[in-house]
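Q: Can I see a sequence and its folded structure?
A: Here is a first one.
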Amino acid sequence: MAGHGHAHGAGAHADASSSTRIAVAFGITAALLLAQVVGSILTGSLALLVDTVHALTDVAGLGVALVAQRLLRRPPRGRRTWGLVRVEVLAAAAQAAALLIVALVVVVEGVRRLGEPTDVPGPLLLAFGVAGLAGNLVSLAVLAGGRAGSLNLRAAFLEVLNDAIGSLAVIAAAVAIWAWGFQQADLIASALVAALIVPRSIVLLRDAGRILLESAPQQLDLDDVRAHLMEIEHVVGVHDLHASTLGTGLHQLTAHVVVTEACFADGHAPRILDALQACAAEHFPLALEHATFQLEPPGHAEHEAHRHV
């Protein structure tokens, strides 16, 4: 006997306001990109060039995130029984990979410029840096409200946050060049941006990888889950216990639950199933609303071809 929790639909887990937030941030960042392209050409600044390339990945990443957010709202159908909830995970992974590539480009170009220094006009660089920071702050304000509940919005927020930090570095370099003629500040600022990009990108890539590899959610202790299930009356064993995250706010749990033989004869099995579902939905830090349990009599596991702990 098997049971499952509440009906699942990708649209139920996708906040419509997320699409609006990402769309606004996309428009602002695209405008900044055009301005920074002009600024990079006029100033020859490596730091601003890095910020421009970063803005390009922001625009691409936010565009992917916007498409992903819309795809999330499509209902499950045909062979896509979970809908397209994994699209946002793939989008987040793609954005993280793009940021790592940006960091590599910065390192290569920085090494090249050590031997071929470029004179950068401080006042002009400062103007573009301030404009970039202003746009980034507006985008961050737009994205901040929903990032906690969506990996997709979290990725977009990190993209813009990194770009804002890059704009601060550009401003600092511009001040140093304008006030003291310290041209090396441009290279230092570009290296700082690269150093800030890498750890955040790795964390995001790691989180997306855990979901794609169907690892158990970090907030969930499977030993604790097993212990709670074993406390239910008539349950004598739990095996083949698995948990994974499908997408933002959507987690699944499956388990084979051994109950006493009498439960199948006296009609008690449905009540045990209800108790298992209630346990999964109420006792743990994650809402395991989609839980599937297979009730088995003692000894049935010996006939299973592939049994896990």
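Q: Show me another, different protein.
A: A second, unrelated one:
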Amino acid sequence: MLSRAAENLFWLGRYMERAEATARMISMGQRMSMLPGAPDRSEWTSVMQATHVTLATDRPVSETDIVTDLILDTVSPSAIQACLAKARENGRAVRTALTQEMWESLNDDWRYLEGMDPKTARQQLSRILEWVRSRAAVFRGAVETAMLRNDGYDFLRLGGSIERADMTLRLLNVKYFLLLPETEVVGGGRDHHQWMSMLHAVSGLRAYHHHYLGDYAPWNIADFLLLNQAFPRSVAYSYSQINACLERLEKSHGGAHACQRTARGECDLLGRIDINTIFNDGLHEFLNEQIARTARISQEVSDAYHF
């Protein structure tokens, strides 16, 4: 496969996953903002921090800022509208590598957010977030049911899995940013609801309940999102998919690269470390290390396959 086509498919997977993950993060912030808290706090600020979007001023982030900067912005790499436009642009560049169903899922309603003003978007916020998740699910279904299992599939899935690991880590960092200014809420009712909001954001409430039988302890939820090998949105599962894609690419192209070694090492780490060790050493420090390592493997993939 040409490196340009590999790059387009890789970033198509990343942008579609990022659009959905940003919608999920906003949904989590929306749930958290409804919880009683100190008047000078802003759950929306933590969402902005986790997505690495900054405002020009130090004022608290409002829901309007979220709508403007994380949904309607056409330039920011974290904004939903920009992600969907870039996903379609990458898909169009490799149109012949996509099935008809995949292209239609990218092309249908892609102008839905164009021309929408912040006031209308705020009024329809829940509907917009659900629409984004629905479009991502339709695309994912088209990929899994119709795309040939070849190099193109592996690059597409590789990009999506790297993005999913990164965004799950950032979701957990939202929780850290929320607790940082007021550590007295740790273990309280508000703290409990914040952790529950994270499970809602990843559609993992029922799966978590089956696994932990209703024990909603914070360390169990962190364990579920970081180390569970069966939950599709956990970091460990995402890295198992990254490793599988890279192993297939290694076999088809010959020769091992740094990205394969990094992926294997990460899978080994996530398979042997336990959540108590992570909490004792510092959850925030672990999350930052993993975010940096995920960025590193993305760069190593680009270096290995020349894009």
